[in-house]
Specification:
The complex is a heterodimer of chains A (394) and B (206). Chain A is α/β, with parallel strands linked by helices. Chain A is 48% helix and 10% strand. Chain A is built from 16 helices and seven strands. Chain A has helices at residues 2-33, 47-50, 64-67, 71-74, 82-85, 114-117, 142-145, 160-163, 165-175, 184-197, 202-217, 247-273, 284-287, 325-343, 353-369, 372-393, and strands at residues 40-45, 103-105, 120-127, 130-136, 151-157, 222-226, 278-281. In chain A, the strands form two sheets. In chain A, strands 2-1-5-6-7 form a five-stranded parallel beta sheet. Chain A has a two-stranded antiparallel sheet with strand order 3-4. In chain A, helix 11 (202-217) packs across helix 12. Chain A starts with a helix and ends with a helix. In chain B, the strands form three sheets. A five-stranded mixed beta sheet of chain B has the order 4-5-6-7-10. The radius of gyration of chain B is 28 Å and the shape is elongated. The chains are: A alpha/beta (394), B alpha+beta (206). Chains A and B meet through helix 9, helix 10, helix 12, helix 15 and helix 16 of A and helix 1, helix 2, strand 3, strand 4 and strand 5 of B.
């Protein structure tokens, strides 16, 4: 009898064990098969990221009284911006199809390094009574609203408004006649670089911004910093519709943009050395031959303010000197390559920055030397004339 | 035992300190590379004398700090008001010694600047930049120039010759432009004159 009881107990124990084990296996298996969480991308930055000048903007179709209260419209976030064209594995379609789901678009036209961590007050002036200001949240605030360590990619263009090369061109065209002061542009660039290098200049601000983004997004996030394109074509000087700058001034603008890109690359490299997961993507090559005023431009030329401009009082459209729809596609293709490389575990080879810089220096020297002979010749002529007078008097 | 523990702690602190020194040193040197290795700022100054000789007839060369016709802040504000350019602020870019300032608003002071500029929107909705260099007033029709197919900017002046300024040499040049810019002469640059000009009329000026 006792033996039978023992068998029964044994069978019950085996049954309980088998049931529990199978349940555990089921639940464990279920855990394994749980679908992977979607990757999240956050797009921060300035007008080059927001897609300034590429209509339609998010919120554009609303009534004027409503769209001035729409952060997306006030920031001029385009439905065709390059970050929206990017794709990520496991996410169907482009990021623009997943706005506020797996893609968070916080870039704002006009933003400087300051506005990444601080509120951005945008002033709008359409017409009376539609004039005023609207505060946009600090761009990094988006990370507070997302789950910790959930962001896979952060894309950004930043620093362009701090150095404001496109603004320099716009101002040169509006506020003055380059003919009446041929060296004003050079002086302006000198001032810009002086500020860039200063103790609290753009260079330091950019370094701090990248660090703040990595800290807010989490160490798992890959930060992709896109560079800026050259703005003016070599053919611009020949263009009948654009006659402010000569070839030398066009070279000066383009060289300064290249120099800025090199500096961006250096800052990104420095930050990577500091442990940030940050990558620089150059775009100059993709825009080569497609600058403003070229036959097939990817950059919008200087145009007059239009219906969708936030600030009509400025007369000249903010669209001016920004990538157009084709420019956005070119940008997206450059950045996509970097994302694909990261996804495939391919780390791009480091370039020799010093040699690149040497090349740039050489180019700058060439521009300078175009003018030196005339100065030297003048000096030589003066000496010759003086010698001649001396000799004739002798 | 106690002494051994004490020695161990001192060693540990020493090693941590050394690691920190090396780390900070590496950070500093890396940062210094970032900060100091930049090429010097782009010079690229244009030889203004050569440029104006090529594009214009140079009538006069006047060192800016010796010119008697340079206006003070107070004088330029008064002059612009007289001409009807009251709404917008006046800006300058250079000191009288040729130092670049990067756009500063002009106040009613006795300080002199080599050049001034302000904006004006005419009744015909043309945007004008009014530039004054060494007392010579010029008007740039911005929107007209943006859409023009003339191949050179148009500028309105009160005579055939205009004044230009070069910061690096701090020199005024009185020039009669031959290329690169088209000078249209009007009796007086003021709001009344600019208000009376339509886009077509700007092009027809002689």
């Amino acid at each position: 009898m006792n033996l039978r009881k023992g068998y029964i107990y044994l069978i019950v124990i085996i049954l309980i064990y088998t049931y529990t084990a199978s349940c555990y296996q089921i639940s464990y298996g279920a855990e394994e098969e749980e679908p992977q969480k979607s990757k999240i991308m956050v797009s921060l930055g300035d007008s080059y990221s927001s897609g300034e000048g590429i209509e339609p903007f998010f919120g554009q179709d609303k009534r004027l009284s409503k769209k001035v209260k729409d952060d997306d419209w006030i920031a001029h976030r385009s439905t065709k911006s390059w970050p929206g064209l990017l794709t990520l594995p496991g996410i169907e379609g482009a990021m623009v199809d997943h706005k506020d789901d797996t893609w968070f678009f916080k870039a704002a036209s006009g933003a400087t390094t300051k506005e990444i961590e601080k509120e951005f007050t945008k002033i709008y002036f359409k017409d009376v009574p539609h004039l005023g200001k609207r505060k946009l949240d600090p761009q990094v605030k988006i990370f507070e609203d997302l789950d910790d360590n959930s962001v896979s990619y952060v894309t950004i263009t930043m620093g362009g408004n701090d150095v404001d090369f496109s603004g320099i061109i716009r101002k040169c065209m509006i506020q003055g006649l380059p003919f009446t002061n041929k060296n004003k542009l050079t002086d302006k660039f000198h001032k810009t670089w002086e500020e860039f290098r200063s103790a609290d200049g753009t260079r330091i601000k950019l370094t701090n911004v990248y660090k703040a983004i990595q800290k807010a997004a989490g160490q798992q996030a890959h930060i992709i910093v896109a560079g800026y394109p050259q703005l003016l074509s070599d053919e611009t000087a020949e263009s009948k519709t654009y006659h402010c700058f000569n070839q030398n001034e066009i070279d000066l603008v383009n060289c300064n943009v290249s120099k800025f890109n090199l500096n961006l690359k250096k800052i990104v490299n420095f930050c990577r050395g500091e442990g940030l997961d940050i990558w620089f993507v150059p775009v100059e090559d993709a825009f080569e031959g497609h600058e403003a005023y070229s036959p097939d431009p990817y950059i919008t030329p200087i145009i007059i303010a239009n219906e969708q401009d936030i600030n009509k009082i400025l007369f000249i459209s903010a669209y001016s000197m920004h990538p157009n729809e084709n420019g956005a596609i070119a940008y997206a293709s450059c950045v996509q390559k970097q994302i694909d490389a990261i996804e495939n575990g391919e780390i791009p080879e480091e370039e020799d920055f010093q040699s690149l810089e040497d090349i740039l220096d050489q180019k700058i020297k060439e521009i300078e030397e175009r003018h030196i002979p005339s100065l030297l010749e003048k000096l030589q002529n003066m000496i010759d004339q003086w010698l001649l007078t001396k000799c004739s008097s002798c | 035992m106690h002494k051994k523990w004490h020695t161990f702690c001192i060693w540990l602190l020493g090693i941590a300190y050394m690691i920190q020194i090396v780390r900070v040193g590496m950070y500093d040197s890396a940062y210094r590379v970032l900060m100091d290795e930049d090429p010097e700022s782009i010079e690229g100054y244009i030889d203004a004398e050569a440029y104006y000789e090529e594009t214009s007839d140079i009538l006069k060369r006047i060192p800016a700090d010796e010119s008697p016709t340079v206006q003070t802040g107070r004088e330029i504000i008064k002059d612009m008001r007289k001409r009807g350019f009251r709404k917008n602020p006046i800006y300058t870019d250079y000191t009288l010694t040729g130092r670049y300032l990067d756009e500063q608003k002009v106040t009613r002071s006795s300080r002199k600047y080599p050049s001034y500029q302000t904006m004006y929107v005419s009744k015909a909705n043309e945007l004008w930049t009014i530039i004054t260099i060494n007392g010579c007033v010029m008007a740039n029709p911005v929107l007209y120039n943006l859409s023009s197919k003339l191949g050179a900017q148009i500028v309105l002046a009160e005579s055939d010759s205009i004044m230009v300024y070069d910061g690096p040499t701090n020199m005024f040049y009185e020039v009669v432009p031959k290329t690169d810019i088209i000078v249209k002469v009007v009796d007086r640059i003021d709001a009344k004159t600019l208000d009376g000009l339509t886009e077509d009329e700007i092009g027809e000026l002689k």
